């Protein structure tokens, strides 16, 4: 009856609209009376707004549509329910990450183009990016109304891969498996190792360039996938396929004895192998056979989940470790890790040659919370932006039960102070600290320390340095002091042998010494 009244065209549109709304119906873009179902509302919104939507935006648009048509009692629809509707809608084409838009054609319309679509896949067996086929025949894509490659992928999925002789599957709307290459480990290895064999002795970058140019495979994806999956054939980004592994079982027995650390620099491990047998061809494949995998020019035992786990096993297994062993690895990564382990109190430098590990600290009854409380006691004792040393701290009356409990050296306490995040250290002979109220990445200059101790008065430089070194337990030489004074606000006069808070004070004192009024 509603459709009949609409066809008569004799009922006022507003009156008919009110009647339809009362019956839970509306007139859609095809001039049909349809119920306020989710499918009909989605279809109407997409038809009238020819742009790309996602699920969350569609939920908002549907709510507005219901309200505009007086359907306040309509049940709210979730993004999950919208997604279920989208997957069943006839006039929708989907993209990646849940995006979709209105699509004019239906699947039965696309069947007329099966021959043209099959012709797209008349290429060599392999793994291709979907862009390869989308870009190959742009006139066909335009005729099909496809705007980007992921829409082509979803259209082919909707038609069914069984309609295509050479198309096996499409993975993640991006990688297309053609011919004898299927989405399984054996086929993928067959394809990628075949490419590697063509680039034996060349760089991984050249290989990735080739796959991008000839198969439209995405460069970042390829770089990550190949560099991880086929690491046994890659060393320092160079491909090495022509590798002959040793067949002598005695060689492998010896290697278990001499190559047993959790982590090595690659060159160090290679040197160990050569000591056992100089004729061996060292390669990533051999390292893999020996139980190691390359990570950032380092070799890690495959039993460890990460480089961090391996370095902790290397350095933290015993009660203490020598500074020499920690610094034996000529690699910035190792130095950075040692620095961070010290900041986390997994390593505590007890003198210039040794670290106590967290295990060693536990042996003497010290825990990380103990260290944290000790450092908090120091923070409560000192003043912000005032320079101090361990000696001046003790001379000022600082005490802590932690010192009696741990009985560490002054060197160790100084290193622990260094680990406080807001503490900055002046680079000089001896450690001078300041707790900055507004911490900066850079360490303060020595001149700032001089200025604090000098105040607003001038001093004989030799007397000043003698008292400074005695008070703070330092060894600042006259030469170093003069070198620093030349670069800051403080000033030094050779005529008076004095250090001054600024140049104006120096000029006034110098001229007065010469009998000149300023």
Task: Give me the secondary-structure topology.
Elements: H1 2-8, H2 13-22, E1 25-27, E2 33-35, H3 38-48, H4 55-68, H5 79-88, E3 92-94, E4 100-102, H6 107-110, H7 114-120, E5 126-129, H8 130-136, H9 138-144, H10 149-159, E6 167-171, E7 175-178, H11 185-198, H12 204-215, H13 219-229, E8 234-235, E9 238-239, H14 249-258, E10 263-265, H15 266-276, H16 284-289, E11 292-295, E12 298-301, H17 307-315, E13 320-322, H18 323-326, H19 332-343, E14 347-349, E15 354-357, H20 358-363, H21 368-381, H22 390-395, H23 401-406, H24 410-418, E16 423-428, E17 430-435, H25 446-454, E18 459-460, H26 461-472, H27 478-485, E19 491-493, E20 498-500, H28 503-513
Antiparallel strand pairs: 1-2, 3-4, 5-7, 6-7, 8-9, 10-12, 11-12, 13-15, 14-15, 16-17, 18-20, 19-20
Helix pairs in contact: 3-4, 4-5, 8-10, 12-13
**Count of discrete domains:** 5
Largest sheet: 3 strands, antiparallel
Strand content: 5-15%
Helix content: 40-55%
Structural class, by secondary structure, is alpha+beta
Biggest sheet: strand arrangement = 5-7-6
Radius of gyration: 38 Å
Instruction: Tell me the number of strands.
Output: 20
The rough form would be described as extended
Task: Determine the N-to-C terminus distance.
Answer: 109 Å
Count of DSSP-assigned helices:
28
Which stretches are low in confidence, meaning pLDDT under 50 for 5 or more residues running? none
Average pLDDT rating? 85
């Amino acid at each position: 009856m509603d459709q009949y009244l609409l066809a008569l065209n004799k009922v006022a549109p507003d009156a008919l609209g009110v009647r339809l709304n009362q019956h839970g119906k509306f007139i859609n873009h095809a001039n049909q009376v349809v119920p306020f179902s989710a499918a009909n509302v989605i279809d109407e919104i997409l038809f009238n707004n020819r742009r790309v939507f996602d699920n969350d935006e569609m939920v908002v648009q549907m709510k507005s549509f219901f309200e505009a048509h007086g359907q306040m009692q309509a049940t709210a629809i979730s993004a999950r329910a919208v997604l279920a509707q989208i997957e069943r809608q006839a006039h929708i084409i989907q993209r990646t990450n849940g995006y979709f838009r209105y699509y004019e054609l239906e699947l039965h319309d696309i069947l007329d183009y099966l021959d043209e679509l099959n012709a797209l896949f008349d290429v060599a067996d392999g793994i291709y990016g979907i862009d390869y086929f989308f870009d190959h025949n742009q006139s066909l894509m335009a005729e099909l109304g496809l705007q980007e490659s992921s829409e082509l992928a979803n259209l082919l999925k909707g038609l069914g891969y069984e309609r295509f002789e050479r198309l096996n599957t499409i993975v993640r709307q991006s990688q297309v498996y053609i011919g004898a290459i299927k989405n399984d480990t054996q086929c993928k290895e067959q394809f990628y190792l075949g490419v590697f064999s063509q680039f034996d002795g060349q760089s991984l970058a050249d290989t990735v360039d080739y796959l991008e140019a000839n198969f439209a495979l995405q460069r970042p994806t390829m770089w990550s996938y190949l560099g991880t999956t086929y690491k046994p054939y890659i060393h320092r980004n160079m491909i090495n396929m022509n590798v002959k592994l040793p067949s002598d079982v005695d060689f492998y027995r010896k290697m278990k004895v001499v190559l047993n650390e959790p982590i090595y620099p690659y060159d160090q491990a290679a040197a160990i192998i050569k000591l056992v047998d100089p004729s061996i061809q060292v390669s990533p494949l051999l390292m893999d056979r020996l139980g190691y995998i390359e990570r950032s020019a380092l070799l890690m035992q495959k039993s460890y989940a990460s480089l961090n786990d391996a370095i902790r096993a290397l350095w933290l297994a015993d009660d203490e470790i020598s500074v020499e062993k920690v610094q034996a690895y000529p690699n910035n990564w190792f130095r950075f890790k040692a620095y961070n382990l010290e900041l986390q109190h997994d390593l505590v430098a007890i003198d210039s040659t040794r670290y106590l590990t967290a295990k060693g600290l536990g042996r003497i009854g010290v825990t990380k919370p103990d260290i944290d409380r000790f450092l908090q006691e120091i923070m409560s004792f000192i003043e912000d932006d005032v320079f101090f040393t361990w000696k001046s701290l003790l001379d000022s009356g600082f005490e802590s039960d932690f010192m009696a409990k741990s009985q560490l050296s002054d060197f160790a306490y100084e290193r622990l102070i260094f680990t406080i995040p807001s503490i900055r250290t002046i680079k000089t002979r001896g450690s001078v600290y300041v707790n900055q109220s507004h911490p900066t990445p850079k360490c303060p200059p020595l001149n700032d320390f001089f200025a604090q101790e000098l105040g607003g008065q001038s001093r004989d430089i030799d007397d000043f340095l003698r008292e400074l070194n005695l008070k703070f337990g330092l060894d600042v030489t006259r030469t170093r002091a003069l070198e620093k004074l030349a670069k800051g606000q403080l000033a030094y006069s050779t005529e008076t042998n004095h250090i001054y808070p600024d140049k104006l004070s120096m000029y006034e004192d110098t001229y007065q010494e010469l009998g000149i009024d300023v």
